[in-house]
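for the recovery benchmark. tokens below, seq after
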């Protein structure tokens, strides 16, 4: 039997649930929506961090905040206050729980677990047909948030951000719970950008992640050795026990090539423009998109995908990534310069898609000009055309 509804969301992760939650706010004005999620149940599989202080609804979901952060290179260390725009954390288990609570209360939104969408989704008589083991569903509109598999032929980010993290509990007090260690470049080499990211929850407990920016995505096994070495160095012999792990692969600088000819079917989420090219941060962008998309849908219009960033941001991100790609040896110096010379409020605005022209100019002025000018001279077709120079993958 085929079930019919107004809108189907494929994938109930961050993007699918964010859209579901925002649609629920519209009550009866929301289209009848079915979220099809492949998983049997949600687990605490990831930790989302972002800069707060901008009054976004999603900030209310945060369970931890840091009012200062540090950047460390082989030569220097800087700690900056960020009280006005604290670094906030949302544990995915809390997000999933909150979303399920909101969706359960809604008469218009339904979440169906264990519904792995398979096969091609074809349109017949104005309705998209979606097949799952739990049944066949049809709707005139689709929002597809299923992540594209990395390395598909049509998907070429400039760089990949791959990371492996673990919650660590130490026997001695070695963390500062007020300070997020955003980048510690110990272990970085001229060939690759590697750093440790530490989110301390208490003096003895932290999420510790080894992160690589590189031209290929890395699986957890690839990151194991670097992770071990960085943790050893950071803990300096302090005994510890290991807890929950997480692994992620985020695209950095993927062109938006997901435009579908039919406006009744759109792609959204991490691999469809949800990630900020220069940082891979996606949580806040996805939330903002979901608010806008819900508003559009509640007024009877077709769904929207992620909007392109303004030209200046696209160009700055593309240039920054191209410098990182060509000169990975410069990464520690570039990030240190950015975070130490620019006021943390401006950096937070820039990272959160809220930068004005003055913020952009201040950020450009903080960076050493030579590598950027030489990259600009080599590259005519910014943004994100490096793959042309590499001859594609
Ligand atoms: C470990 C980790 C940490 C991260 N940390 C941060 C961070 O600190 N800050 C930040 O801004 N971003 C972060 N990100 C990036 C980004 O915010 C997340 O990846 C986010 O979950 C992306 O949302 P999404 O909805 O696009 O994808 P997902 O949340 O992965 O959701 C996709 C959903 O689709 C479902 N699905 C897939 N295929 C099918 C199918 N065939 N049928 C039905 N369902 C299907 C999946 O089960 C999943 O639930 C992190 C990512 C990871 C992996």
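predicted aa per position
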């Amino acid at each position: 039997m085929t079930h019919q509804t107004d809108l189907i969301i494929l994938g109930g992760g961050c993007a699918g649930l964010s859209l579901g939650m925002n649609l629920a706010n519209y009550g009866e004005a929301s289209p009848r929506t079915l979220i099809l999620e492949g998983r049997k149940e949600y687990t605490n599989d990831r930790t989302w961090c972002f800069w707060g202080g901008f009054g976004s609804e999603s900030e209310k979901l945060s369970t931890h905040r840091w009012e200062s952060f540090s950047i460390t290179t082989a030569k220097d260390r800087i700690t900056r206050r960020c009280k006005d725009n604290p670094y906030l954390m949302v544990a995915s288990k809390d997000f999933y729980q909150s979303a399920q609570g909101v969706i359960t209360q809604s008469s218009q939104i339904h979440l169906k677990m264990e519904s792995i969408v398979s096969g091609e989704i074809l349109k017949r008589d104005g309705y998209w047909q979606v097949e799952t083991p739990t049944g066949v569903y049809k709707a005139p509109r689709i929002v597809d948030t299923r992540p594209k598999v990395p390395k598909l032929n049509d998907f070429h980010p400039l760089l990949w951000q791959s990371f492996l993290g673990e919650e660590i509990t130490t026997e001695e007090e070695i963390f500062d719970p007020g300070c997020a260690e955003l980048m510690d470049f110990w272990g970085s080499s001229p060939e690759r950008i590697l750093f440790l990211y530490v989110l301390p929850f208490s003096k003895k407990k932290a999420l510790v992640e080894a992160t690589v920016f590189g031209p290929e995505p890395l699986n957890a096994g690839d990151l194991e050795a670097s992770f071990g070495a960085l943790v050893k160095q950071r803990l300096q012999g302090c005994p510890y026990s290991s807890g929950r792990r997480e692994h992620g692969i985020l695209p950095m600088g993927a062109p938006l090539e997901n435009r579908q000819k039919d406006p009744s079917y759109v792609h959204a989420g991490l691999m469809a423009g949800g990630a900020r090219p220069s940082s891979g941060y996606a949580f806040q962008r996805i939330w903002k998109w979901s608010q806008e998309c819900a508003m559009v849908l509640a007024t009877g219009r077709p769904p929207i995908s992620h909007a392109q960033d303004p030209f200046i941001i696209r160009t700055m991100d593309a240039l920054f990534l191209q410098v990182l790609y060509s000169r990975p040896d410069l990464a520690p110096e570039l990030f240190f310069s950015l975070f130490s010379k620019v006021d943390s409020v401006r950096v937070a605005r820039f990272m959160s898609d809220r930068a004005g022209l003055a913020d952009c100019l201040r950020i450009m002025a903080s960076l050493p000009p030579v590598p950027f000018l030489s990259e600009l001279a080599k590259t005519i077709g910014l943004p994100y055309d490096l793959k042309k120079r590499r001859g594609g993958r």
